[in-house]
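Protein 1 of 2
SEQ + STRUCT:
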Amino acid sequence: MDVYEAVASRRAVRAFTDRDVPREVLERVLSAAAWAPSASNLQPWHTYAVTGVALAEIKKRAAERLATGDPWDEPEYEQYPPALKSPYRERRSAFGEQRYGTLGIAREDTEGRQRAASANWGCFGAPAALFCYIDRDLGRPQWSDVGMYLQTVMLLLRAEGLHSCTQMAWAKFHRTVAEVLSPPDELILFCGMSIGFEDATACDGRTGRAPLDETVTFVDGL
């Protein structure tokens, strides 16, 4: 699989089979992803690769919190601005319409939307997950470095025939994850990433992208 194919075929998959992801594959991917760029080579990512009993325990504890209506954890970072301006507001709305429309969930079906969202904390059935942390003393440039690292991981997973889904949703249950992983206090959970083999029988559409002229300006000369 060449780079263009990996980029074109990568998408947020939200339905996985229970087929195991071999440890050696995760090690190969994460070893290669360490070459992702970062300013002054800080390499600000701290990643936990979780499978087996440990991941099952995280899923179980998250499910128990959902079942009892336990509120989300106090956020440690702002996922979106309080008021998204155009065109980001419209893009987010279009994503929601497509996502829930694919599942046959109407806009007014609040319970159905909550039920679909809760699948995040089961990793959509994936047998492997990453939990990516960053030191709370670092700044915005280092957060962007973590994003480049995660994209590198996802493209390498495609080269291995695997799919993934990054999930800021796990930051809402960061205490639950910490109960199992025991990360140092100086780390913030940025996101989780579900990893596995796609369940091709599931109904899981792909969102589109803005036209090139909406996001790119070519400049040639003065």
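Protein 2 of 2
SEQ + STRUCT:
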Amino acid sequence: MWRRAVLEVFPAAGIREPVRASALAGAEERLGRSLPAELKQLLLESDGLLGRTHVDTVWTLDQIVERNLLFWTDESFAQLYMSFDAFLFFGDNGGGDQFAFVQKPERADVFVWEHESDSRRWVARDLQDYLGRSLRTGGDDWYRQW
């Protein structure tokens, strides 16, 4: 389902080999929380997605784990930015801005964290909407255009 939906929007998207269910379970254990169901389904079809200009529209499972653990525990981030505990980051724009699900409270919406201003704002109603918006446009700053 996800592969077809992605390729319909952007035929040149970078599709990877899928992850194993056991790898997802291990990732959730390391994170200490569940991944959103839509994200798990996508990862079972492709371990991340490369979008326009080879940006990690969706990170690999390993990147999701490593980057979230960094955001949640790095003391220098805690001194510079508001807490990231409510977020589960899963992709970026290639220039420092990160995309995330809010998990506290859990919701399907996707938000962008803009690193220059530490702002966090809504950009898509769910993962499918996020992929449609980010892959359909011509630039990696698509979320700033509206």
